[in-house]
């Protein structure tokens, strides 16, 4: 009898060990597959968010100046601005293929055109396996907006040595459920004073250099995207639900500005280069996948440099003037502003 009990205990221990090992192995396989899945998802996400990040730079750094002239000492220029940024077709979608991924497969075909964050609807699904279970995910859809409108306020003050300080701010602006917010500052220094002198003609060409730093926060909400089992068991919910994308664009912009006034009209132009750093955050439900996703984004060094040209025309009357400018590059960002000088 004692020998039988001993054998039963041994069998129980072996069975427990085998079950525990298989369970641990299954868990490890799930997390290993989840990490590979997140890496695959980043391949899509990088191309998905990049146009929105670049658009944020154009919107937040395209209108820091209205002239190469600077304000006199302690004079103030207060202005209200609105940016209008149409989304070009080339920035609304991109192509993915099965060869881009390690674990995900496109459900129909081996390649597909999918939206960016600035694009529209899609019916493309990815299939993949985590551990022993099969899952599916519909690729992200875009904001479904063909044009972005972005108002903000700005103020400049004249300092010593023909230098000007500008501050820019916008409270959070809601467009549908998505929101935008910016703040930053710039310093402009007139260069033509060094060869034109103090008694220069108002009709002469002015040249200045400006350095600006801006932070642009945008939150894009889209229809919920569930990472869920392909054939769920009764009561089995999604692994994660992705609901929003936050993009923070930190831009350091340097630009060489030229302007010339013809009576009430003033034409201005600049060449600008922005060095940009982006931070992305995915919002949603499902701590495991969401945390893995955002951890992968944190480890990703995402930065670029954008060069563009700016052209504009101002119309002056009394203490007011109306300024308009267009940034030309990957995007065409138009800015219209009304200024009051004190």
UniProtKB/TrEMBL annotation:
Signal peptide range in chain numbering: 1-26
Keywords: Signal
UniProt xrefs under Pfam families: DUF6588
UniProt-recorded name of the protein: Uncharacterized protein
């Amino acid at each position: 009898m004692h020998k039988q009990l001993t054998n039963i205990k041994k069998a129980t221990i072996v069975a427990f060990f085998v079950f525990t090992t298989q369970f641990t192995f299954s868990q490890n396989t799930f997390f290993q597959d989840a990490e590979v899945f997140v890496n695959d998802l980043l391949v899509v996400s990088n191309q998905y968010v990049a146009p929105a990040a670049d658009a944020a730079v154009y919107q937040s750094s395209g209108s820091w100046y209205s002239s190469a002239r600077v304000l006199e000492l302690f004079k103030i220029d207060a202005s209200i601005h609105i940016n209008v940024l149409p989304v070009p077709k080339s920035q609304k979608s991109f192509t993915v293929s099965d060869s881009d991924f390690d674990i995900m497969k496109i459900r129909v075909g081996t390649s597909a055109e999918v939206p960016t964050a600035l694009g529209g609807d899609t019916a493309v699904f990815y299939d993949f396996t985590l551990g022993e279970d099969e899952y599916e995910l519909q690729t992200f859809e875009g904001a479904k907006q063909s044009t972005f409108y972005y108002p903000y306020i700005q103020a400049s003050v004249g300092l010593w040595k023909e230098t000007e300080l500008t501050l820019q701010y916008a409270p959070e602006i809601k467009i549908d459920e998505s929101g935008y917010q910016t703040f930053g500052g710039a310093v402009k220094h007139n260069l033509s004073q060094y060869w034109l002198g103090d008694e220069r003609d108002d009709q002469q060409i002015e040249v200045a250099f400006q350095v600006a730093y801006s932070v642009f926060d945008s939150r894009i909400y889209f229809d919920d995207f569930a990472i869920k089992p392909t054939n769920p068991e009764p009561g089995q919910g999604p692994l994660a639900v992705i609901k929003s994308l936050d993009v923070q664009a930190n831009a350091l912009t340097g630009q060489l500005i030229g302007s010339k006034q013809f009576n009430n009209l003033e034409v201005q132009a600049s060449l600008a280069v922005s060095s940009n750093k982006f931070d992305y955050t995915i919002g949603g439900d499902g701590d495991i996948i969401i945390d893995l996703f955002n951890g992968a984004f944190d480890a990703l060094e995402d930065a670029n440099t954008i060069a563009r040209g700016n052209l504009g025309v101002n119309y002056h009357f009394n203490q007011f003037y109306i300024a308009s400018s267009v940034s030309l590059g990957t995007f065409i960002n138009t800015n219209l502003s009304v200024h009051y000088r004190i």
